[in-house]
Amino acid sequence: MVTLAEVARHAGVSASTVSYVLSGKRPISAATRERVESSVRTLGYHPNAGARALASSRSNIIALMVPLRTDMYLPVMTEIATAVATAARAHGYDILLLTGDEGPEAVRRIEGSALADAMILMDVELDDGRLPLLRAATRPAVLIGLPSDPDGLHCVDLDFAAAGAACVEHLAGLGHREIAVVGEAAAVYERRTGFAERTLAGLRGRAAELGLRLLHRPCEGSYAAVAATLSRIVDERPGTTAFVVQNEAATDPLLALLRQSGRAVPEDVSVVAVCHEQVAARASVPLTSVAVPAREMGRRAVERAVALVEGRGADPEAVLLAPQLTVRASTARTPADT
Amino acid sequence: MVTLAEVARHAGVSASTVSYVLSGKRPISAATRERVESSVRTLGYHPNAGARALASSRSNIIALMVPLRTDMYLPVMTEIATAVATAARAHGYDILLLTGDEGPEAVRRIEGSALADAMILMDVELDDGRLPLLRAATRPAVLIGLPSDPDGLHCVDLDFAAAGAACVEHLAGLGHREIAVVGEAAAVYERRTGFAERTLAGLRGRAAELGLRLLHRPCEGSYAAVAATLSRIVDERPGTTAFVVQNEAATDPLLALLRQSGRAVPEDVSVVAVCHEQVAARASVPLTSVAVPAREMGRRAVERAVALVEGRGADPEAVLLAPQLTVRASTARTPADT
DNA sequence: TTGAAAGCGCTAACAT
DNA sequence: ATGTTAGCGCTTTCAA
């Protein structure tokens, strides 16, 4: 293993000079810089992470806590996670992968061991057990998601309430007056995950404002569950002409079942999804949708975390990304309206 | 920040005693052990990761390199990754998340910086550019996947060739004589990813042995692509009575299209999938399938890596997990056969 | 512009 | 069964 000392000897300079060449924290003459850099290359030197962390109390590692669940749509989580990893590398940081099942204890562990310089947390619940620890922690944390009390915390999330409102507006503009919402699995609401509740609030709020009827039903992702939910909806609200789906696993079954039951999309009923972009684009009828901007959320979270670690910290705030509704082939004017 | 020295002072013992209490590497009297442990708790001590890594040249971190692609089915990758993370924690290790786009350079970086004690690599190609570095590395590596030359490497994978063979056998046993294979996207084969090629080899080999006709077509996951592939298959081989699908994204479209074209599953055609268990179970017709044992693969990889790090190393070998075919509702005897 | 030297907090011989 | 002590490889004052 090549050490700083060996590089220093090889380049004929002191250890500190090598260190400063590497960190750029003090001016170095062009001549020595080149000599050192060439020694680094020829010896294949890589600084020892442990030693560096110990001496500088910086690990250049960001801990990322990902959900470990089966009732959430994984591709979005995965996309956020890989976006975080990629963005972190671009800033010279590595990612330590923590799973949500470790709970608040993981926060303590990371904080205590100085394993990471900052934490990024996903799958934030409205009243998340990790929040008190994060507020008290000496190292910065960024949430991807929005708890009910974001005070003193750095948050990045899609503005799901606005997303819900946008869906209702789009449908109202097309003449729809009765909307049914096929939601996430009931467990997601019970857990009081922020995004699902907020979307619903946005949907309901705008529906009330515009005088639309809105029926919401949680729904599992299986084909059978969607079939059951759909038939209940049709029974209760035969006048329904539009659906909002917030459940990636349910979109394909929903389209298939509508088709099967003789309801053409978008001629007879319209469908708007709040979902992963690929799911919307690849569906059997390409779906008008509000996408979750996973990559941007990951990137923003990392940028904030890095800024905080490196002392360019902004005030804690909730950054809510504006939703963007993309019109595809699944929405049209109501039959009555044409 | 609480240090070892503070714990030692608080407990009235030397630093080394505290260290040994924590590591269990030498006998400690019950009395001092208890005193130390109580001090640890009351002070809220957590060993500093950097210092420990520096002194012991062990980071208790395993680096996991995950694919960063869009043409692979992510849930399986995600499931493996979370299984790896969970298993690692159970052994006292943390996971450092590396993305595949860093390529061989990441191997050098981790090796050089001693950031991780071992590496686990996913998405292994038949002739993977990272292999030479891994063979030369001083730290152990475990591949999840199987390159063409696994010599000197520790590998864990599903026996995809056996999986392919099992599919053919099952169908042959039901009287099918003409099988069509709907495969992964063409890019997956071009990249020479091991698993896709090996499944195909297993399918072809057993089909040849049993005298069945077998047609293979790569296929993108979109609805349109599956439709095109299906119609080509039907044109070329009108006698096809069974499909093998190895492409999670294509299964649902395939079932929908078969239904639409008046072919009932399993009455008219049988379908066997090599895919994620959930995809098979949740499909509109629950699919007879060979599942990728993602959790077990992750667990086995971690166990091997930990054993190697801790000096209980076995010889390098390729561990191929036996496939298990689960019969569900998508396969039946051929119409001609009943 | 560079060097010397004192730690960072821990582990692991080497003592006793 | 426990204490003493010498590093691990780096960063960063303090000096020159």
Shape of chain A: elongated
Q: What is the chain-wise order of helices and strands of chain A?
A: HHHHEHEHEHEEHEHHEHEHEHEHEE
Number of DSSP helical runs of chain A? 14
Summarize the amount of helix of chain A as a percent range: 40-55%
CATH homologous superfamily placement of the largest domain in chain A? Response regulator
List the helices and strands and how they pair.
Two copies of one chain form a homodimer.
Chain A: H1 4-11, H2 15-23, H3 30-43, H4 49-56, E1 61-66, H5 74-90, E2 94-99, H6 104-113, E3 118-121, H7 131-136, E4 141-144, E5 154-158, H8 160-173, E6 178-182, H9 186-190, H10 194-210, E7 213-217, H11 223-236, E8 242-245, H12 248-260, E9 270-275, H13 277-282, E10 288-291, H14 294-309, E11 318-321, E12 325-326
Parallel strand pairs in A: 1-2, 1-3, 3-4, 4-5, 5-11, 6-7, 6-8, 8-9, 9-10
Antiparallel strand pairs in A: 10-12
Chain A binds a DNA duplex (16 and 16 nucleotides) through helix 2 and helix 4.
